[in-house]
Write a structure and sequence with these properties.
127 residues; mainly alpha
C-alpha cells in the first residue's frame, strides 16, 4: 500500500482507497491512480472518471407551500427550476406591487401554478 496525491485536490490518498476522502474522486480499482510510482496503472495511463449525474427530486408539497406563502415573489418557481417565470413574478411584484395590481396579478398567477404544475423544469414529476 502506497500513498499518492489525488490529481483533483492534492491530498494524500492510499492506493487501496475506493475514493479520495478530500474531494470524493472515485478510484476505478485499487491501484488505479495514474502517476503513482510502483503502482499498477502508473504506465502513463490517464484516469478518466465516469461523470455521475445526480438529480434531486423536488417536493410538490414544498412547491405548494412556497407558492402560497411567497408566490408573489416567484420563489416557488425558482425552487422548481423555472427561473424565467420566477424572475418575471419578482419583477412584476417589485415594480407594480405598490399599485396593488402587481400583487393581484402575481398572486392569481401563483395560485393557478400551485394548482396545475406537477413537473419541474427538467420534466421530472414532483413527488
Amino acid at each position: 500500500m502506497a500513498l499518492v496525491n489525488c490529481p483533483d485536490c492534492g491530498k494524500q490518498v492510499s492506493t487501496e482507497a475506493i475514493a479520495c476522502p478530500g474531494c470524493g474522486r472515485p478510484v476505478k480499482a485499487p491501484g488505479a491512480w495514474s502517476g503513482a510510482p510502483g503502482v499498477a496503472g502508473s504506465s502513463g495511463q490517464q484516469y478518466h472518471p465516469t461523470p455521475v449525474v445526480v438529480q434531486t427530486v423536488k417536493s410538490r408539497g414544498v412547491f405548494i407551500i412556497l407558492g402560497l406563502l411567497l408566490g408573489c415573489l416567484g420563489i416557488h418557481n425558482f425552487y422548481a427550476g423555472y427561473n424565467g417565470k420566477g424572475a418575471a413574478q419578482l419583477i412584476i411584484t417589485l415594480l407594480l406591487g405598490w399599485v396593488i395590481i402587481g400583487l393581484v396579478v402575481t398572486a392569481l398567477w401563483a395560485l393557478i401554478e400551485v394548482c396545475t404544475v406537477t413537473v419541474d423544469a427538467q420534466g421530472n414529476r414532483m413527488s
